[in-house]
Amino acid sequence: MVSALFFIGIIVLVISVVTGILTGTFFGFIVALLSGIVSGMILFALSHILNNQQSILFKLHQLEEIHKKQMKQEKKKCTNCNYEYEVSLSSCPYCGRRE
């Protein structure tokens, strides 16, 4: 999607230059060129925003995986029934013993 927006931006710029040349007037060329530049910049900005969003989501996914691995490692073992449970719990969910 990011590369498609980038290529569409390039195509819009090329089409605006060609359209400007085909108008035959200097004012028409400037108007077509400016509209193409503005449209191209919007598409380039959108592709940049989507690229940043994808990298942020990838990093968040990596952090989530690291967090899940850490939460799995932090477990307590009940001294009464030897049931393993999370550190965040104040008592054993199996037998109810508080530690």
UniProtKB/TrEMBL annotation:
Organism: Lederbergia wuyishanensis
Transmembrane intervals: 30-50
Protein name (record): ABC-type transport system involved in multi-copper enzyme maturation permease subunit
Domain of life (superkingdom): Bacteria
Keywords of the record: Membrane, Transmembrane, Transmembrane helix
